[in-house]
Amino acid sequence: MLLSAGRPIRQSRRVQLFSYCWALWTALAVIAVVCAFWHWGSLMLGDIVLPGPVTVFKLSIELLRNYETAEIPHTLFRASIAISAAVVTGVALGLLTGLSKTLALFCRPIISILLGTPPIIWVVLAIFWFSTGDSSAIFTTYIAVTPLMFASALQSMLSIDRNFEEVMRVYKVSYVRRIHHLYWPHLLNQLLPAFNIAFASGLKIAIMAELLGTADGIGAQIGVARTMLETDVVMAYIVILLLIIYLVEYLFIEPLKIIFLPWAQRRG
User: Which processes are annotated in GO (biological process) (predicted)?
Assistant: First the structure.
């Protein structure tokens, strides 16, 4: 059992639930402040330039009720495939590369090139290579998210304390226990926040790819709204996008942090 000042690091379920609710309440408070400034800006600029939050929220609810007509499933399908494949590929390759410092030095320039390439470039290239449709949007999202997960996994492997590894070898700690007590907690501490960023970035890139390279999906609907000067529709889709990101963060990422990273919650 891990101890801090003679007390267990792992908190009780009640304390963990309170920490989770407090984080959720803080997020809601920040959203309320943003909505207040948003409402003020709408009064100053007018509904055509900046629709008010009440109007946008009503339209967002209507779009969610008619989610098939709003073509939300198309975007979620493409984004989920691309992000899942990118996470698996990036983490696996990053962990394997992190086992060798020489290989890591060789791969770093490649990752820097991929990370430095703007997503819009990949959108254009994907349209050239795959034409318009699902393939171009999935490829663009995949190629943009994979380097993020690769770099995070690589850095997490390289930042493992080698002194701890040496101590475990000296005391002949089994490899299974090394994974459980050293590698698993350390990697999760690095990869969970990276996955949160990768999901949000991947979803936004998928929508951007749809705007230019597909005839359906949220991106295509935003393109139609841009043509019709429907600012409220664009804002409604932004709200839906943020809602999806928050749901993934607070229903998936945060519970995993509470369960597997209790010391991080205690430190926070």
Answer: transmembrane transport
